[in-house]
Specification:
Elements (H helix, E strand, L loop, with lengths): L1 H28 L4 H5 L8 E3 L17 E9 L5 E6 L5 E7 L4 E6 H4 L3 E8 H5 L14 E4 L3 E9 L6 H8 L3 E4 L9
């Protein structure tokens, strides 16, 4: 009886390990990741509005028809990027993802506390190269460090009712993802 119980426990543990390894490894082998799906429709370092979901097809899975979405497929190899996103009446958010789809930062209009969300995206090395500026505080300049040189930034804006969608899309069309101007050192 104890032998059967040990074999049963071993089988359950082995099944759990195989399941966990499969779930964690599967995203690395997916051929149709969000990044791969967006390559044909989004140029690098430019903000592009995504079409709304249709009944027969969507660009990304599980898109919500109440949200207008824009995406910036970024490459920080040439330098940092600056994001300027006007907020809408209802809700606006920015989500940052690695090329593999791992979310590493998110901010919404409530957390930003402003009518425009402005931030700089750069790698840790690029941030280390920034000159020290005693007059600029963390509240003056929001800097997001990317774990890699490439990835995605998804901007989502809520249209509380279908009639508001054109206004939300118009506001979202003003969002920008562009090369960040070089930092000026006050001593040089």
């Amino acid at each position: 009886m104890i032998r059967w119980l040990l074999w049963l426990m071993f089988g359950i543990a082995l099944g759990g390990v195989v399941h966990l390894v499969t779930v964690l490894a599967l995203p690395r082998f997916a051929e149709q990741s969000a990044y791969a799906r967006l390559v044909p429709v989004s140029p690098v370092n430019a903000m592009v509005q995504l079409p709304g979901p249709a009944a027969d097809s969507t660009l990304l899975p599980l898109m919500d028809p109440a949200f207008a979405e824009s995406v910036c497929r970024y490459d920080l190899g040439e330098g940092p990027l600056k994001f300027v996103v006007p907020v809408t009446q209802a809700y606006t958010s920015l989500s940052f993802y690695t090329r593999e789809g791992v979310a590493y930062y998110a901010i919404n209009d409530r957390a930003a506390g402003r009518r425009i969300i402005e931030l700089d995206l750069m790698t840790a090395d690029q941030r280390a190269d920034l000159p020290e500026n005693d007059e600029m505080t963390a509240a003056d300049r929001l800097i997001v460090e990317s774990p890699g040189e490439t990835g995605l930034v998804l901007v989502r804006a809520l249209a509380p009712e279908p009639g508001f969608m054109p206004m939300v899309r118009e506001t979202l069309a003003k969002a920008r993802c562009e090369a960040s101007p070089p930092a000026q050192d006050k001593n040089g």
